[in-house]
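Record minuted for completeness.

…
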Amino acid sequence: MSDLSKYHGIIPAFYAAYDEKGEINPEGVRALTQYFIDKGVKGLYVNGSSGECIYQSVADRKLVLENVMAVAKGKLTIINHVACNSTKDSIELAKHSEELGVDAIAAIPPIYFRLPEHAIAAYWNAISDAAPNTDFIIYNIPQLAGVALTPTLYRTMLDNPRVIGVKNSSMPVQDIEIFNSLAPGKLVFNGPDEQFLGGRLMGAAGGIGGTYGAMPELFLKLDELIAQGDLETAKSLQYEINNIIGHLVVGRGSMYAVIKAVLKELEGLELGSVRSPLAPVVEEDKDLVHKAAELIRAAKAKFC
């Protein structure tokens, strides 16, 4: 098992970057990667929910990772999410990830068919076996995957020495305590951005989040305040962040479409839209995008 300190801290979930035809835009991927390096985050979680992986091909996901690694290798901790519904495709992405030198791979359970726990464990272990020199992170997001990581399943997975912990996106912060108690010395990442403070206080070593990219300075500051023990200011900042998130999720366009529009306004990043069937930003979302950008600017001026 590798040095786990490289996973501590703020790890934004990487967004998909598309050209005007809706195809992967390598230049956009590289620009977004450099943006995160410049902001000073610890690492990136590539090809996850925020990367719209469920709507991308194996070739798309390889292209994204190749361009991330071309910029970030040696500069950021890189976790690549490799799960597909097909074990075969997941294995292909795991092998590719190891060839490129990522720090870890991650995977949700297969979705749609409700599989027994032994089948989920076999799926995860087959993926991990395909990248024998790479750390493995279980991604627990039961509200979307349709199946939760139970203590029994986690204990089974802990027999795999490459398993370093869990990206926990379930809503109860108690789950962080449970996973920590089952495997002292392993990692738990806080998933829900709205409860970063609560998750860290319950024992999360860091966070992986889908809204971090819109406001990395705020999450870096929140992490710093927690380390300093200034929990009153941390709580105030978490409330400000939650208000911003509240604006990001109420557009006609999906949250990721809104975030990309916010990043264009704040940072000049051209990431394109989102891939269908995700909903793009529409004309009536423009005021919402501007308001979210203004709230981020105000929060940075207040706290950073």
